[in-house]
Structures
1.
Amino acid sequence: MDLSNNRLCCGGCFKKTAYDVKFQGKWLRLKKTVDPELILWENFAVTRKSKCARKILFGFAMLLLLAACFYSVFLFERAIYDEE
């Protein structure tokens, strides 16, 4: 399904903004860029695969930590109940 002509389907009734530009016969939507000093250039070379692996590892570590906290609370409650 080709969506490249979706701007022409309404007969041009929508006004083009200053950020809509035609380049080599196709409409481009431009966005304002971030200032270069705000970019973390150290993270620029990190691949998408590496980012995904880090997120999965972090999520797994947080689930493990959460389970350990629940288990410790369960053990403390059980110890208090056994003392009574």
Note: The two ends are 70 Å apart (CA to CA).
2.
Amino acid sequence: MRGWADRREPGPEMNRLYALECALSVTGMNADHRLRIRPSQLLPVALALAATVLASLANNLPASAVAAVALGASAIDADGGEMNQNIWKMKGRQ
């Protein structure tokens, strides 16, 4: 991590590191912007972030990628929340 920080050159064109996390991590400590969120907020925040990124990229994605995203979204809608329940039931297990 130190090597990464040492090579950064501050300026307007510099990439920024954003961390959204439930517990402090080394990455979060080194982030330019860190937002602490509750564990229960992690999945909704991640999904909202992914939706925002996909929406901004939709015009630049190949048609096959757009179709794959639509297919995945329809599968999630069709399962009636079963995936969410399974994720919650398995939390903390690997």
Note: The chain has two domains: 2-36, 39-89.
3.
Amino acid sequence: MDFSDALRAIKRGKMLCRAGWNGRHLRIFMVDSTERPVKDGDAMAQRVPVGTMLGHNNHIGILAKDGTVTPWLASQQDLLADDWMIDDGGVEESFVRGSAA
């Protein structure tokens, strides 16, 4: 599928990957908006009182092999690719946090 179809699938809550990615365990998905308090020592604590709830907007995240999630931005190759796939939902051992080889 192309990126337009992939984006629609992400908005429906699907997890996706590309056949052309070198990291075969990488998946992208929608990270829902959340709120979290400013903590003492946070960079924001210099401008916002500790304990203030800050909103975090929806964004696309990428799930790495070690189980960590990072905000993701599409490259030009990702935007133009036709090899997007919806994750079949299978659980891979390699997705267990801390098991990266």
Note: The chain is about 15% helix and 25% strand.
4.
Amino acid sequence: MPGPDTKKLAASLRAFSDQTRIRLLMALRQKGELCVRDLTERLRLPQPTISAHLGILRRHGLVRARRTGKQVFYSNDKPQLGRLRKGFDDLFPPKPRGKRRRR
């Protein structure tokens, strides 16, 4: 039975091991697409910190970047996040929901 690519899954999960990166992913989920300046204001962190964490998320394929002039806009890579979720679900399948028996 084929399973998830555990090496890729482990690398992607390491990208989630930082509170700032989780906050970035959440902000992008809420707004869809934001530039670094918007993210610095929203998270109240310095630009170099935001840029460093976005770089990690990009290397792991969790966010996409789109350049317009001098600005770079970031968004979550929904297909990649979906594959990550599927890999996690393959490792730890949700328990089937059945009818609860009354006592």
Note: The chain has one domain: 6-91.
